[in-house]
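This entry is passed on directly below:
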Amino acid sequence: MTDTFQRVYFRKRTEDKGNGSFAYKAEESMLRIEETEKSKPHGEPEGLGQQEDSKVAGLRLRRLVCIAAWFGFLAVVKAHSSPGSSTDSRVDALLSVMGDFGYNLLLAQSWKGSDPCDYWCRITCMEGQIEYIVLASMNLMGRISKRFADLTSLYALDLSRNLLTGTIPYELTTVKMIRSLYLSHNQLHGRVPHFKTLIPDTKGNPEVRRDNHTLAWVLSGGFKALALGILIGVGIYLFRLGKGTDHIELVRQRILK
């Protein structure tokens, strides 16, 4: 209050200098300042409102920082789990396969690490590429995973003598390198999709419906080769027949002479 009074004192002294009312106006201003101070709530220190505003602003800032950090964490997790990340796509595919098999204990204990060719159970690699997966007689349950199709270098897959149910995924037909597919003695059902490079072994699955693969072979282009072979054979036969006829005619003419 002393500083305020001094400011009022000097301001009033400047304004009222020489008119004889300086003392009265200074005293009046002093009373107004005291009334203003008395009208403030008791026990409330000066600047309390500013302190509260500062606290609210600080809380809001911390909340914004926490939200930004959370979204950043989610972005990092999504980046690491996306197909374009540095994670080996074969690992992701095989872990999905294991999930479709109900996380078999032996596979769960062995299929660890970042390289499936590094002594993963029942997997054989050639020059760093997965070529053979032999999971026969492991009491596997669940269904045949579509993610096998992501293993583009796969040459042979053996899932025989397990407890697998469901159908044979059509996606397996897109694996261009596969030459052997053993699915015998499971509990599969439905039709067998057409493979261009093999005929799956499905014996021991009574509910599996096998289509006429001979007809499928004809429709897929085998008929062209068959027709070409027939035409070649007919041509050779006619050539030989014509040559034989000429020889008989020549002998007849000689006899007549």
